Amino acid sequence: MKKLRLDPLSLAGLACLLLLVLLALGSLVDAAGDPDAIVGPRLRPPGPGWWLGTDNLGRSVLPRVMEGVGTTLLLSSAAVLVTAALSAGFGVLAGYRGGYLNELIMRVVEVLYSFPAIVLAVLVAAVAGPGQLAALASIVLVTIPLMTRLVRAAAVAVAGRDYVTAAVISGARLPRVLGRHVLPNVAGTIAVQGTYALSVGISVEGGLSFLGFGVQPPQASLGVLIRQGGTYMMAAPWLIIGPGAVLVLAILSINVFGDGLRDRFEPRETRSLV
Amino acid sequence: MRLLLWWAGRALSSAVTLLGISVLIFAALRLMPGGFAETILGPFATPEQKAELAARYGLDQSVLAQYGHWLAAVGTGDFGTSMISRQPVAAELAARLPVTARLTLLAVAAAVLAGVPLGVVTAVRARPGGGGGAGRLLSGLGVSVPEFALGSLVVFVVSRYGLQTTGYLLPAAVLSIFAISATARTTRDAVLGVLVEQHITAAVARGETPWFIVRHHILRNAAGPVLTLTATITAYLLGGALIVEYLFNLPGVGSYVVQAVGRRDYAVVQAGVLLAAAVFIVMNVLVDLLVGLVDPRLGRRA
């Protein structure tokens, strides 16, 4: 295993992400207090006792944001794991085997890809009923087409390499060829696309919950908090500023980390013109 | 001849994709709990009333028969009648299209006019200290702010300071932040890819100025991915910018279709999704043609 070297910006992104995970873990032990406890007057601006202000019920916003980050990160990463597993399986199979199987898989991917993303998510929510499961399924369906296409493209490139041919000639069966020779060589693509899928997932969860089809209150997610805060936006802007800032920070740090991963796994020559 | 065959195959696969979408959407609508009759008649409807309503709209037939009738009608350009408003779906969608089209046009224009130069500059100045880093961070931030977060913020600022909220400029601005940033990032990647090619080395050796090199040797060669992205963004926005329409109270295509999902207005959802997907596919085909014209190497490779 080669050592993973990253540039400072990506490391900063990673550090930021870890900090958010820490915040989410903190909410498990109520590190900043019970997210459902009423701690003070309603709609108070940030101050001692409620560092991000209080909401319309007098609950402190900070523990709610911590719970929200946890919900959002957990949902999105669970969904991305499902996407990664499915894309890896289908993408590698389609890219290596080609033929009818490839046609079939790519047609299905094309159907999902041509669906307007947010409408797809709303339809899923309508079928499954609004909630965490709907949010999870939506993220999977929205992120799977792009990832499968790119994994397939990477697998096509790997399939023609000599070491794969050598493995086939020496009698390796399909699962062994795919698992031992093709998959490890497309793992970089999966990792890079996985990080991007995570940031898309967070955005989809947010949007869906914001429209009222995703995570349902009283459970907090970043989308839920921004939706609820919207109602009292004029009197208490901190209700959307806190969760909004955390949301943007989460997506930005993941994207920056993803860029670093990409530069690491798909290095290329660069040059400057001026 | 080979090219003709290729395009025929492309048309066929597009048709298969659309068919797949229509099956998926049909199945999804029928799987939803709570049918059209419940939505219209309320919870106290008698079974007879429900049956009568279902019969009137042909919902008492088997799903397969419904699908067959619908597909045959769509083949003749008839997208059915909204079960709520009793107006032809095509007319209702057409009435909402100008709103969506205007938003799309503004956002895409901004993406091309601002995103492409931004991308070129950040690529050409990629050397540390060249000022490219700032642009890169800015566009990274731009693709990291979800529409609903940025939109909420804009609505807040606008209403707090009593600014004008009607019109298309603000919603289009919210949409264009992502579009501009994504375009800038893709342009940067594409230009960086061209920069390392040998003909650029040759141009530098001939002593051509950077600006001349950009115009004559880079833009055309880097156009492919940028055009593809522009087409994707255009198609995506034409499918309905749901969240922005919701935030700014705009009667566009997206909010219409999602409202129809809630009311189980089957014909509207089916038509809306199918049209959005068709736009997506047609845009992709168009852009492949366009890319072939701008960069003939890519056209021949197809």
From TrEMBL, chain A:
It holds the Pfam family BPD_transp_1. Residues 69-258 form the ABC transmembrane type-1 domain. It is found in: Cell membrane. CDD domains: TM_PBP2. Its main location: membrane. The chain crosses the membrane at residues 73-96, 108-127, 133-151, 235-257. It is a multi-pass membrane protein. Coiled coil: none annotated. Keywords: Cell membrane, Membrane, Transmembrane, Transmembrane helix, Transport. Belongs to the binding-protein-dependent transport system permease family. PANTHER family: OLIGOPEPTIDE TRANSPORT SYSTEM PERMEASE PROTEIN APPC (PTHR43386), PEPTIDE ABC TRANSPORTER PERMEASE PROTEIN (PTHR43386:SF25). This is Peptide/nickel transport system permease protein. It comes from Nonomuraea roseoviolacea subsp. carminata. The lineage of its organism: Bacteria, Bacillati, Actinomycetota, Actinomycetes, Streptosporangiales.
UniProtKB/TrEMBL annotation, chain B:
InterPro entries: BPD_transp_1_N (IPR045621), MetI-like (IPR000515), MetI-like_sf (IPR035906). The chain crosses the membrane at residues 103-125, 137-159, 165-184, 226-248, 268-294. Residues 97-287 form the ABC transmembrane type-1 domain. It is found in: Cell membrane. CDD domains: TM_PBP2 (cd06261). It is a multi-pass membrane protein. The keyword Secreted does not apply. Keywords: Cell membrane, Membrane, Transmembrane, Transmembrane helix, Transport. Belongs to the binding-protein-dependent transport system permease family. This is Peptide/nickel transport system permease protein.
